[in-house]
Specification:
The protein is mostly helical. It has one domain. The chain has eight helices and no strands. The longest helix is centred in the first third of the chain and has 20 residues.
Amino acid sequence: MPANPRSIKRIINAIELRKEIAKIEGHNSLLGTPVRWTILEQSYPEFTAYLISNPSLITTLTADTFDAEKSIVGKNHPDWLYDCVKQGTLLALLKGNEHDDSLDEKPLTEKDVYLMGRGEVPGA
């Protein structure tokens, strides 16, 4: 989280908006997903935009066996992606905490990327 109070307030407002949208769309059980997605959008905008364009990448990034060097380098991804995913904070946001049910913090899925990034899941 940023140290700037205005940035923090912007994230809080964006989270509240995202939660309200999720409720309206009937995704009430996904409380932690909109919060984590909003933090991703605000903290890693270039990564989030790339993920929206490549939703299947989330499956690779959240795998228990994920290895940034083997999974990213030389796989037709932008050069900056490797440095971005090496950050523990980013992967923690993506993977969540499966042992804590308080915010529904399971790993983000391709469906989550479609819902949060595009507002719909293809074929649903």
